[in-house]
Design brief:
The chain is of the alpha/beta class and 139 residues long. The protein is built from 2 helices and 7 strands; from the N terminus they run E-H-E-E-E-E-H-E-E. The longest helix is centred in the first third of the chain and has 11 residues. The radius of gyration is 16 Å and the shape is globular. The mean pLDDT is 91.
Amino acid sequence: MRYLHTMVRVLDLEKSLDFYINKLGLQEIRRHEHEQGRFTLLFLATGPDAPTIELTYNWDQKTPYSVGRNFGHLAYEVDNIYAFCEQLQQKGVTILRPPRDGRMAFIRSPDEISIELLQKGDALAPQEPWMSMKNSGEW
């Protein structure tokens, strides 16, 4: 068995692409437009051979999808959690659970999907401003 992808339904395709590509740093791997079914599937990943996230955009959907806690979250490993979170903040992303421990942080997509960011390898030594930063909202 091999892991293929995780599917997330999105309400605003442009806002979601801005988040996943321009802010989170994923790449579009492939796209399928389905005129008859009136939906678009976009597959994003950290690189060509990495597992993908499938963004499903239903063209006629106008109301937000409900968010179930049974989904949980997506998780990505980063080389430097502090630098990555700082870059996200500079791009307007709210760090909901700051990396106070040098190991883990949480953010959310425009569609309220929780995304866990994990430090690659050992945790970094705790440092400011992260150590003093409080949680914000739900994650």
